């Protein structure tokens, strides 16, 4: 544990010599833990009052004063947004507190079909949505967390692609590595934004993201889930053309398709 708290770096010093620099990281790690606990506690405390506000707002009928109707619609939409932010923050806290996740067989055919249905429900016929299953390989990992990560990528594709665009959800092997990807013909992301895009609350355009119901936490969740699966996120994007978000898994996570059950 002590070794973990030391930041060790080896740097070239003089001809044939190296300098070993050790830095005490315990203070930094303590602060990081305080930050994590604080976020988790605040989110947890906000959950109950928000549920109450949300519940009562749903009960109010503006029969007496119809001019209240637009105000109620706005209040309901904002309270839903707050609830979603709190839920996403709690998801992130939960992921940060974990060193590993369950290692189960993730039935990719099932997950992909659910994702397609989710995309269709969000798109409401405004996009052409396709499923491109190029392998019947399954994955080892946590079905729940992987589904939530993939779902975030699919929902972003729908939300950042104008009506008439197309979205392709793909599952394939690149060499021996299983890859899940979502390609859209949406607004794209400029290269200058890419390095920060997975940070909490980082957005290219906050108003657009808010309009489309985003919390600014989706890609952070994706990043954490992939880290827990030792997988990486690759983003290729061109402004005005579209984006591809790929989750690249290690070959050791590929599982031959389960044999068809007989009898
Ligand atoms: P948000 O809730 O704002 O969508 P995310 O963390 O999911 O939060 O995404 C961060 C930002 O990345 C978004 O606000 C948006 O600017 C950009 N982004 C994410 N996915 C896409 C996409 N498929 N096309 C264009 N921009 C995207």
Automatic annotation (TrEMBL):
Top-rank taxon, per record: Bacteria
Catalytic activity: ATP + protein L-histidine = ADP + protein N-phospho-L-histidine
E.C. number(s) listed in UniProt: 2.7.13.3
Subcellular location per the Swiss-Prot or TrEMBL entry: Cell membrane
Top-tier EC class: transferase
Example GO molecular function: kinase activity
Keywords for the protein's UniProt record, in alphabetical order: ATP-binding, Cell membrane, Kinase, Membrane, Nucleotide-binding, Phosphate transport, Phosphoprotein, Transferase, Transmembrane, Transmembrane helix, Transport, Two-component regulatory system
Domain Histidine kinase per the UniProt entry, residue ranges: 41-253
Record's function text: Member of the two-component regulatory system PhoR/PhoB involved in the phosphate regulon genes expression. PhoR may function as a membrane-associated protein kinase that phosphorylates PhoB in response to environmental signals.
Protein's UniProt name: Phosphate regulon sensor protein PhoR
Organism per entry: Tahibacter harae
Residues of the full protein shown: 171 to 433 of 433
């Amino acid at each position: 544990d002590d070794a973990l708290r030391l930041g060790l770096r080896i740097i070239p010093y003089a001809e044939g010599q190296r300098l070993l620099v050790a830095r005490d990281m315990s203070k930094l790690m303590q602060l990081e833990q305080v930050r994590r606990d604080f976020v988790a506690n605040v989110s947890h405390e906000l959950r109950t009052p928000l549920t109450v506000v949300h519940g009562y707002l749903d009960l109010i009928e503006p029969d007496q004063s119809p001019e209240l109707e637009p105000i109620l619609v706005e209040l309901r939409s904002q309270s839903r947004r707050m609830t979603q932010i709190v839920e996403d923050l709690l998801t992130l806290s939960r992921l940060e507190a974990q060193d590993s996740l369950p290692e189960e067989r993730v039935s990719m055919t099932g997950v992909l079909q659910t994702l397609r249905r989710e995309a269709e429900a969000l798109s409401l016929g405004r996009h052409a949505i396709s499923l491109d299953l190029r392998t019947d390989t399954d994955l080892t990992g946590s079905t729940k967390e992987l589904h939530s990560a993939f779902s975030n990528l699919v929902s972003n594709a729908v939300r950042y692609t104008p009506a008439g665009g197309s979205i392709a959800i793909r599952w394939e092997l690149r060499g021996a590595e299983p890859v899940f990807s979502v390609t859209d013909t949406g607004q794209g992301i400029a290269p200058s934004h890419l390095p920060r895009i997975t940070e909490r609350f980082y957005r290219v355009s906050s108003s657009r993201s808010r309009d489309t119901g985003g919390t600014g936490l989706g890609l952070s969740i994706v990043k954490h889930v992939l880290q827990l699966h030792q997988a990486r996120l690759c983003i290729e994007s061109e402004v005005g053309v579209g984006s591809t978000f790929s989750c690249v898994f290690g070959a050791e996570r590929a599982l031959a398709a389960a044999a068809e059950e007989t009898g």
